[in-house]
Amino acid sequence: MTQVAINREALREVFSAAEINNDQIRWNYLVQETERRCVGVIGTVSTLVTLVSFLSMEQREAELMNSFSLDHVMDRQELRTLHDVLTGDVRTAQLGLDRIFYWPRLEVAVSGG
Question: How far apart are CA 34 and CA 40, in angstroms?
């Protein structure tokens, strides 16, 4: 399984556009069965649908118009990769009364400096 590292600011923008607030984001969610860390979001199925719908619209806009609303934080290839990971590799788990959606392949890019 190939890991995908995306800039934290880009992910924050995507989540914000999908109305996911900082309290819902788990930047280092520990996947018990693999003991790896990845990005997760606490919410409902509606939260996931909103996120996937937003990314799908962004992807379509990038294809048709050659621009999209997040082009200030990521390029078209990063958008395509993020879209593919978030729409195709989602896992879920109960977290007390909540549900967490997580992506084992998705991690925050380590910035230099």
Answer: 15
Range of the domain at 72: 4-108
Q: How many domains does the chain have?
A: 1
Amino acid in position 21: N
72 found inside a domain: yes
Element (H, E) at 60: helix 45-65
Handedness of CA 56, 62, 65, 71 (dihedral sign): positive
**What is the helix (H) or strand (E) element at residue 13, kind and residue range?**
helix 8-17
Can you give the pTM of this predicted structure?
0.84
Q: Could you tell me if 20 and 41 are in contact, meaning their C-beta atoms sit under 8 angstroms apart?
A: yes
Instruction: Give 58-108 pLDDT, tens digit per residue.
Output: 888 887 787 778 777 888 888 888 888 988 889 999 888 889 999 998 988
Q: How far apart are CA 73 and CA 87, in angstroms?
A: 20
Please check whether residue 113 lies inside any domain of the structure. Answer: no
